[in-house]
Amino acid sequence: MIARAPRSEWTTAILDTPGLVPPDATASFIGGSVARGWQHARSDADVYVVLSQPWTGPANGMNTVALSPGVVPTQITHLDDRRWELRYWTEGQVSQLFEKTGWDVFSADDPTGRRITPYEVAFLCRLATALPISGVSWLHEAGQRLKASAFRAILTVRALNDADAAVEDALGMVESGDLGSAVLAARTAFGAAVDALTLHHGEYGLEAKWQDRRVRATQPALLPIGVYRDFITLRSLDPRSPTDWIMSVLEWCRRVALEVEVTA
Fold first, then answer.
1. Structural domain range at position 195
2. 19 & 136 share domain
3. Residues 28 and 47: beta-carbon distance below 8 Å
4. Residue range 168-180, pLDDT digits in tens
5. Which of 7, 44, 83, 147 is found 20 to 30 A from 15 (Cα to Cα)?
6. Superkingdom, according to UniProt (predicted)?
7. How many whole angstroms separate alpha carbon 52 and alpha carbon 89?
């Protein structure tokens, strides 16, 4: 029998609805904002179900992944006036995903994990903060495997590379006198550098809408929340002298690049 987690209002809604999580599922969990207590009044709920074999039940959509099988069936339903999206993964797909995030892959030829698709990234990010429904032991082991993997390092290097590219764009735009575009490029660099910093401090998420939450959760010394909001909202930008703001942001990004060290 698959071990189930203690019930909450969220897990009860799923478990009490027949046909959503089969009793022989290897594991199941709620991910995203609901799992972290960050949900807002209109948040949907994301449920991940891990099975020994591909899902053969009802589905009304699919997510494409670079794994075998190459799709993750999805089912959207509404419970208690809230939208729920269930994704049905296989144990084999999860195992392949961990192989793609091994330190050997990171060290060899794919340090930024470009072969990892967005749906695969989302699965691992949400596994890190999972609210268990069933299969508690499996989820614990998977969580330990995630911590031991190169996944966070992969995302960090990717974020640092994205920040560096945007910094170069911003500098080129300043030199060309295109200050409006340079402001946007600097803001892009800042967002990527913030992701690198919060990853460095233990976070996994990348969704832009929750970046403020991640900064508050990690409280990095290099980025007080007031400074973060000044930059991300452009609140500290003086339109009469945008170059000063741009260079301040780019200097901050440089400091992040020096602080965040990624090693195999």
1. 152-259
2. yes
3. yes
4. 999 999 999 999 9
5. 147
6. Bacteria
7. 9
